[in-house]
Write a structure and sequence with these properties.
Elements lengths: L4 H18 L19 H34 L15 H30 L6 E8 L2 E6 L5 E5 L21 E4 L3 E8 L4 E5 L4 E5 L5 E6 L4 E7 L11 E7 L1 H15 L4 H13 L2
Parallel strand pairs: 1-5, 4-10
Antiparallel strand pairs: 1-2, 2-3, 5-8, 6-7, 6-9, 9-10
Helix pairs in contact: 2-3
The protein binds copper (II) ion.
Length: 281
Amino acid sequence: MALGRGARIAALATIFSGVGGGAVLAGQVHEWQTGFQEPATSIMAGIVDFNRLLVPIIVVISLFVLALMAVVVFRFNARSNPKPSRTSHNTLLELAWTVIPIIILVVIAVPSVRLLYLQERIPEADMTIKAIGHQWYWSYEYPDHGGFAFDAVMKEQADLLADEPRLLATDNRIVLPVDTIVRVLITSEDVIHAWAVPAFGVKKDAVPGRTTQVWFKVDREGVYYGQCSELCGTNHGFMPIQVEVVSKEAFAAWVQQAQAAYGTPTTTGTLAQAASATTQP
Ligand SMILES: [Cu+2]
């Protein structure tokens, strides 16, 4: 589909305006994006930094190997090198091609394992929510706030608010407080899904019969979007995740409203949902 001139200029403006122009778009993809979304957690900032370390190393190694192959192809083919050398050992060279790769791997492994440790070691959480995957929507429970629960189904295009992106907005959004360590328990009631929010640097499989977990502490308020990231069936692409991060006061006010709106549940409700979900073909 051809973009109008206005849209193209807007897209370019977005690319070059960086953080400032991204303010509205924080937490979601934008046109012509090639890199990561702007990080909203320290973990995602760590992932961006690690990527910055890794890409130059990969590029240099790839170019070096390409250059070696070019030398072999052009200088040592049968025509340009009819009498091949019969050298079979070179201690210095053998030492170098063992030690240098080890050093490179250590340089990569240390920050990599450190980052993995920070991701996987769940700190003492200030609050916990539960995300449950269904074909094809997510439902959420707030066990620390009276245990209310709700479904989050993707909005049709006609229902979108002005600032909401297509295929990413949901009818009910998760609301969370800023600067709070949130633990998300993740499971599924039918097939394997995955709960992923790129700006938070989290992605974890939702496996039926198991509970997995992620944590994050969001630095700034805003609306963040994610998607199911495990092929889970026909509507896999239509079960987005929308998280609104607000001040602690606004969150407390929202909890009041949510408890009234979504009620207190609902072991029965959840079981009923489970039954209906599993009877689907
Ligand atoms: Cu899914």
